[in-house]
Amino acid sequence: SCAAVKWAPGSYLFASFGDGRVASYVLKNDAVRPVSRISVGSPVQCLALVEENLIVGCADGGLRMIPIGEGAHFGMSPQPWKAVNGNAAPSLTSISASRIRENSHDGRIYMCATGAEDGSISIFQLSEAQ
Predict the structure, then answer these.
(1) Cα–Cα distance between 75 and 72 in angstroms, integer?
(2) Residue 68 pLDDT > 90, yes or no?
(3) Cα separation of 25 and 68, whole Å?
(4) Burial level of 105, CB count in 10 A (0-12/13-18/19+)?
(5) What is the overall mean pLDDT for the chain?
(6) 23-59 pLDDT per residue, tens
(7) Degrees (nearest 5) of the Cα angle 115, 79, 77?
(8) How far apart, in whole angstroms, are the C-alpha atoms of residue 40 and residue 56?
(9) What is the DSSP letter of 74?
(10) Long-range contact list for 20-29, CB < 8 A, 24+ apart?
(11) Model pLDDT for residues 107-130, shown as the tens digit of each residue
């Protein structure tokens, strides 16, 4: 099942699925065409687009950051963060994220908020791997 969709500038569409897949598409000549896909290892429940990264919330309670390359291609393995809403790791059902700063030794820093199926909400920062 399709869990979440997000349009991006340049006629690109990103979709996440209950089987752990995330896919990118392009709208061209009045048709939506597949571009790239990747598996994150857990059913995806929600996603946020932040600049050239997708941050997806998963049923295992973790997040995955997926770098987006030119033309909406996924070129690298997702960077995982486990149990972001606590040790019980409830399934994530919503996410919002924004880049707040960048520095030379830590890379980009993102502010994130996630909601989980147990009703918990977490607010935290993520650092992108260099």
Answers:
(1) 9
(2) yes
(3) 12
(4) exposed
(5) 88
(6) 999 999 999 999 999 999 999 999 999 988 899 999 9
(7) 130
(8) 9
(9) B
(10) 20/44, 20/58, 22/47, 22/54, 22/56, 22/66, 22/74, 24/68, 24/72, 24/73, 24/74, 25/72, 26/71, 26/72
(11) 788 899 999 999 989 898 887 666
**Could you tell me the pTM of the whole model?**
0.86
Residue recorded with tokens 């909406």: 72
Instruction: Name residue 109's amino acid.
Output: I
Give the residue among 12, 106, 77 at the shortest CA–CA distance from 51.
12
The H or E element spanning position 89 is none
Structure tokens at 115: 């909601």
Tokens of 116: 């989980």
Side chain identity, residue 13: L
Closest of 66, 59, 48 to residue 93, by C-alpha: 59
DSSP for residue 71: G
Q: Which of 56, 57, 53, 70 is nearest to 10 (CA)?
A: 70
**pLDDT one-digit tens code per residue, 12-31:** 999 999 999 999 999 999 99
